[in-house]
Amino acid sequence: MKLLFALIVCVIGVCLAAPLDDSKNAQILRYENDNVGLGNYQFAYETSDGVSRQEQAELKNVGTENEALVVRGTIRWFAPDGQEYVLNYIADENGFQPEGSFLPKV
């Protein structure tokens, strides 16, 4: 019985000592936000697991029937194998237009 108890305690100890997935415990390193609710906005953030995003929007043709919000942004993240991915995008009256790339590990 003592051997079984010791084995269970060891298994629990190993589980608790295992490294945690960084993305589940990521901390916000930087956060900026400029949004007064009148059309234009911008924000940016960066987290400790290597994710970063920035986005800005501009209302164009204000007050006309062609009024449209134009959003531009970039998001970067790392895959589990360490590969960095970058997605640039524009969203406007022509729809969502993404452009992606990956940066080889150095």
TrEMBL record:
GO terms for molecular function: structural constituent of chitin-based larval cuticle. PROSITE patterns: CHIT_BIND_RR_1 (PS00233), CHIT_BIND_RR_2 (PS51155). Transmembrane segments: none annotated. One of its GO terms (cellular component) is chitin-based extracellular matrix. Residues 1-17 form the signal peptide. Keywords: Cuticle, Signal. This is Uncharacterized protein. It comes from the Eukaryota. Pfam families: Chitin_bind_4. It comes from Polypedilum vanderplanki.
